[in-house]
Design a protein that fits this description.
By secondary structure, the chain is of the alpha+beta class. It has one domain (5-156): Nucleic acid-binding proteins (OB fold (Dihydrolipoamide Acetyltransferase, E2P), Beta Barrel). It has helices at 45-59, 159-162, 174-181, and strands spanning 5-6, 10-21, 29-37, 72-73, 87-94, 99-101, 119-131, 134-148. Strands 2-3-5-8-7 form a five-stranded mixed β-barrel. The longest helix is centred in the first third of the chain and has 15 residues, at 45-59. It is elongated.
């Protein structure tokens, strides 16, 4: 295993940190996608350094052509919120559950506290792989620290934004129920 480094701050996307999930028939893993701004690319130097070290260790000084980079252009996923041509994203994965703490280094146990759109940093290592003709470098996830809240990018709205205060408790009055049913109530019969 290579050197462990701390990432710069990133926007969290696709967090799978409480229970592992299997993708494409693979082993269940924990993961998080880190979204960085291209303007901050210089801050990725430590990650690029350990990725290169892992590649050289596995493949030697002359790296194979067509090797897959762990650094991907956000344009690939620009249809998804948070991604775009001004971003770089990197996936971090682990078969073991990462530790997860807040900015005060207090363990986070509530799932709603760590979500797509919050800000975080991670500790990671790099490893090279050669599987079924695919060669490249990936990052192993160790631990995560939530740095702060951000705008949700998972398409989920907070309940507070979906509703307004109401005096209605229990079943709505018949007039309100009829209005809620809309135009053609026969549609539902």
């Amino acid at each position: 295993m290579g050197r462990k480094v701390k990432t710069p701050a990133f926007t969290v996307s696709f967090p799978v940190v409480f229970e592992p999930r299997a993708f494409d028939g693979g082993d269940p893993k924990y993961s998080v996608t880190a979204i960085f701004k291209k303007a901050d690319e210089a801050l990725l130097a430590p990650l690029k350094e350990i990725a290169r070290e892992a590649a050289v260790e596995k493949f030697g000084a002359k790296l194979p052509s067509g090797m897959r980079s762990p650094f991907r252009d956000g344009s690939e996923k620009e249809a998804l919120e948070g991604f775009g041509p001004d971003t770089i994203f990197v996936n971090f994965t682990s078969k073991q559950q990462p530790g997860l703490v807040d900015h005060n280094v207090q363990r986070i146990v509530a799932r709603e506290e760590f979500y797509a759109g919050c800000r975080a940093m991670a500790t990671v290592t790099a490893y090279a792989y050669d599987q079924k003709g695919n060669k490249g470098v990936a990052f192993g996830l160790h631990n995560l620290q939530k740095l702060g809240d951000g705008t949700r990018i998972d398409g989920r709205a907070a309940a507070e934004s979906d509703f307004t205060p109401t005096d209605v408790v229990g079943d709505p009055p018949p007039a309100q129920a009829a209005a809620a049913a809309g135009g053609d109530a026969d549609f539902l019969r």
